[in-house]
Amino acid sequence: MIRLSKSSISQLEKKAVIQVLESEYLGMGEYVDKFERKLSIFFGRPVVCVSSGTSALHLSLQAIGLKPNDEVLVQSMTYIATFQAISATGAKPVSCDVNPDTLTIDCKDAKKRLTSNTRAIIPVHYAGDPGELDTIYNFAKEHNLRVIEDAAHAFGSKYKGSFVGSFGDIACFSFDGIKNITSGEGGCIVTNDKNVIKKVRDIRLLGVEEDTESRFLNKKSWKFDVCEQGWRYHMSNIMAAIGIKQLERSSELLAKRKNIAQKYDKLLEGATKLKPILHNYSNIVPHIYVVVLEKGVNRDNLRQQLSSNGIETGVHYYPNHWLSLYRTKGVNIPVVESIYQRLLSLPLHPSLKESDLLYICNTLKRCLL
To answer: Could you give the CA distance from residue 241 to residue 35 in angstroms, rounded to a whole number?
Structure first.
């Protein structure tokens, strides 16, 4: 089976993990400190590492002071984690439509859903594409909204020549096992907002104030104060050790992803019954490779045929406004509802060979005849 996605781990990561295991200090310590410092150099801004991309979003939303009944604009087409992070604060995610060309948030649609309770907007960098960030930030400034970028797919992507996360309000990344770089599990928050950085450093450690400094010295605070609800969302040394080596290998890993997506574009050029979501791969590092099928193509049957031929595929993502927890009566999100039925994600990870891509594309074309 050609897998849809997989981790790309070398001997460097394995040796780094063994080194941590031999140190017998597995929790949050000096390796997390080192990873944060290296990421801060990469982005040129302060970074806080946490246990996942979801926790990065949750902590960021809490740090900006969201309260129950506050509302956050977010596209319906995203992984459930984005919505769960919002509702975990007591706030309400407000489902918005997407641009059909990039599958990123449609600001015109978002504007229609503004209320007096709207406090923030979360642009989701679908497949690694940040969409029209200038438009989003202008929109946010006009309506006094905080911007928290869900950049889980976008590590290494650039916007107007600058790395996503190196500018803007707050950016949240995921280092999940299949992301552009991984720490096994993990994520980070990047921002110049000193108040947000200070808050998330504490509330990732159950709200224990100034505990980060002790942990980085491989110590623990025994007498402390807690002034805010916190969570056990810190990163471990094991995770950070993997992340450090992945960051060192990032040029290689990101280049492979770009190269694979460019080859897909070429191999699928002129193909019938499908249209790839195209990106400028001089700037975009693709986390997933998505095609849109023509109306009338039975996607479930197609996926079954591809699976029978040893090709795993996916669907990114089931609309959140259709889920019981987030369903709102009378909500109409036409682009998401139309395009979801036709989305298909093809295998994309650094281990794919050119022969795999040829086989995938030829098999896909044959199944669509």
So the answer is: 8
Residues 213, 318 within the same domain: no
Same domain, 180 and 101: yes
Domain count of the chain? 2
Both tokens assigned to 362: 């030829």
pTM above threshold 0.90: yes
Judgement on whether residues 296 and 178 belong to the same structural domain of the protein: no
Torsions phi, psi of 134, nearest 5? -60, -45
Separation CA 95–CA 118 (nearest Å): 12
Distance from C-alpha of 201 to C-alpha of 107, rounded to nearest angstrom = 32
Q: Which residues are catalytic?
A: 179
Hey, what are 353's tokens? Answer: 């060979």
Can you say whether the dihedral through the CA atoms of 20, 81, 306, 366 is positive or negative? Answer: negative
Q: CATH number, domain at 31?
A: 3.40.640.10
How far apart are alpha carbons 243 and 35 in whole angstroms? 7
pLDDT tens-place string over residues 153-186: 999 999 999 999 999 999 999 999 999 999 999 9
Residue 258 · residue 127 · CB < 8 Å: no
Q: Which domain holds residue 218?
A: 11-248
Asked whether residue 5 is domain-assigned, the answer is no
Give the type of residue at 268.
Answer: L
Partnered with residue 276 across adjacent β-strands are 291
DSSP state of 68: T
For residue 188, what are the β-bridge partners?
A: 49, 173
Query: Scanning the structure block, which residue is given the tokens 């923030």?
Result: 120
